[in-house]
Amino acid sequence: MTRRDLLASLAAPALAQRPKLPNIVLIFADDLGSGDLSCYGHPTIRTPHLDRMAAEGVRFTQFYSAASLCSPSRVALMTGRYPVRSGINYVLFPDSTGGLPESEVTIAQLLKKRGYATQIVGKWHLGHLPQYLPTRHGFDHYFGIPFSNDMSLATNVVYDEIATRRGGAPRPPRALERYRTLPGVPLMRDEEVLERDPDQTQITARYTTEATGFLRKAAAARQPFFLYLAHTMPHVPLFSSERFRGKSRGGRFGDAVEELDWSVGEIRRTLAELKLEQDTLILFTSDNGATVQLGDHGGSNGPLREGKGTTWDGGYREPFIASWKGRIAPGRVASDVASTLDFFPTLARLAGVTPPKDLALDGRDLAPLLWETGGRPQADFFYYFAGALHGMRRGPWKLRFPNPSQPEKVELYHLESDFAERFNVAAHHTDVVAQMRDAIATHRASFEPAVTQR
Ligand code: MG
């Protein structure tokens, strides 16, 4: 079934016959690590709004993003499929010609078909050419920076500042070469560029104003809504507005995170004012782990090993908090393994859409873990990086290929007792290794990877 056939099969019901559908707010941070919120144990960064959201909802301790890099992580979030299925295997740049293929189905497209108002605010990062923009993939409107905030000559110099501040040398001049002929980072509305290299000290506040404005408009129209608020922060270069600058004990990274936390508070306050708390599911997570090699410009993955851009768990594990007044029981901490791949099937079911059997989805409905009782069997999770399979999680075990081109070499970690991946126990559990190798072979044989987009 092509995307067109699928979407055609979802004829939107007439307005009068629409069941009351819940609203969905998905808040996505950029490069926020699993140890960066106070409710996840950060010693100095204060996140009272997210802490309250966790106290009033559920907080997950073993939640995965489907990739440890921005673009692949985001395609998995939008499509419910591993990045290799769409070919978004690498980070896209301002000179990339690729992007989200037309053949993919996004969650926004399904929700729009069901009559939702759909809005994205922030970082899209699935292609900036017109055919790849969110307005071509199910969103009514877009406001934001379409790729990373460091992708211009003016902003990319941050890496030289970081290197020299840490006692190193600036990069060779060629490191900035790709940006010399490119325009500044764009701030877009729908398909138009509004500004180049906008003042990023105001970016979190501007996104928040845009997002709360959308909530008010959708509420006034009595239309169910899907807001995808994909923050630019706390990706480097780090910025925060006057009100937050220099205020956090967590330094400039802490300032940016505390402003994000304020933003979450504004979204929840607006929903409360609109009396929509009982009609709205709010999800908060991040695209990939903290960039620990950036020192105080990067965040923390707590006790997890390494971070962004690696296949260690510090790159893939995220804070995940969900709240829905009257539906999700307050104050729960869930240790089930789940991932951003699960959002697509969860939100589709919430909106009353059954994805067709021949649309291969990699996630599973989260409802049993969020508001139903009884839990669900643990799902397998596969670690993809740059188009290659680097490992697998099953139950407490992680099988890891230190070099995927030498698949005979494996490592095995028991992540529930050794969450920092310090002790390779492959030699002691050959049965587990054999079972997981079989599962990987079955998974590999189940589909053909797509052509890589660059
Ligand atoms: Mg990121």
What topology emerges from the helices and strands here?
Blueprint: H1 3-9, E1 23-29, H2 48-55, E2 58-64, H3 70-79, H4 107-113, E3 117-122, E4 141-144, H5 153-156, H6 158-165, H7 177-180, E5 186-189, E6 192-196, H8 203-220, E7 225-230, H9 251-273, E8 280-286, H10 313-316, E9 317-323, E10 332-339, H11 343-350, H12 367-370, E11 381-385, E12 388-394, E13 397-400, E14 411-414, H13 430-445
Helix pairs in contact: 8-9
Bound molecules: magnesium ion (MG).
Describe the model.
The chain is built from 13 helices and 14 strands. It is α/β, with parallel strands linked by helices and 454 residues long. It folds into two domains: 3-150 and 185-370, Alkaline Phosphatase, subunit A; 381-445, Arylsulfatase, C-terminal domain, CATH 3.30.1120. The strands form two sheets. Strands 6-5-4-3-7-1-8-9-2-10 form a ten-stranded mixed β-sheet, sandwiched between helices. Strands 11-12-13-14 form a four-stranded antiparallel β-sheet, covered by helices on one side. Helix 8 (203-220) packs parallel to helix 9 (251-273). The longest helix is centred in the middle third of the chain and has 23 residues, at 251-273. The protein is globular and about 60 Å long. The mean pLDDT is 95. The structure holds magnesium ion (MG). Magnesium ion (MG) binds at residues 30-31, 70, 235, 287-288.
